[in-house]
Amino acid sequence: MNAARSRMIDDTELDEIERDLDELEALLAQPKRRRHGALPAVGGGTITTKPKRGECLVPRQAAFARAIADGLKPIAAAFQAGYRSPNRMTIWRLMRDKRVVTEIERLQQATREAPLS
C-alpha cells in the first residue's frame, strides 16, 4: 500500500532543499560581521556604536576618584561627581573598577608627596 502511494516531494526537490539547507548552515557558521559607525534606529535617525574604552576614565569616574581621594565618603563622593541617585550598587561597581581604584591610589599618593605650604 505504501509503495503504491506517490511521493509528495520528488528527488530534484529534495536535492534543492538539501542545497538550501547546506547554504543556510554555511551562512550561520560564518562569524558575525561587526558594524562600525551608525546603525538605523526605529522611527528614523541612527544609533552610533561606541568603541570600547581603553584604560582612561570617564569624567564622572575621575571626579568620583578625586572626591574619594579628598576624603569624602563614597555616597557623598558620588553625589559630588554628578551621579544623580547613587546607591550601594553604584558605589560597589565604582570601587571594584580597577581604573577608578588606580586613580584613587594615584591621587592619594600625590597628596601624600605634595609639600604643605
Describe the structure.
The chain has 117 residues and is mainly alpha-helical. It contains five helices and two strands, in the order αββαααα. The radius of gyration is 29 Å and the shape is elongated. The model has no long low-confidence stretch (mean pLDDT 83).
User: How many helices does DSSP assign?
Assistant: 5
Outline the biggest β-sheet. Answer: 2 strands, antiparallel
User: How are the strands of the biggest sheet laid out side by side?
Assistant: 1-2
Mean pLDDT: 83
Number of strands: 2
Query: What is the strand content?
Result: 5-15%
* Shape category: elongated
Rg result:
29 Å
- Point out poorly predicted stretches: none
- Helix and strand pattern: HEEHHHH
Portion in helices? 40-55%
Computed structural class = mainly alpha
- How far from one another are the termini? 106 Å
Q: What is shown here, in short?
A:
The protein is mostly helical and 117 residues long. It is built from 5 helices and 2 strands; from the N terminus they run αββαααα.
Write the layout of secondary structure elements.
Layout: H1 11-29, E1 38-40, E2 46-48, H2 59-69, H3 74-81, H4 88-96, H5 98-113
Antiparallel strand pairs: 1-2
Helix pairs in contact: 2-3, 2-5
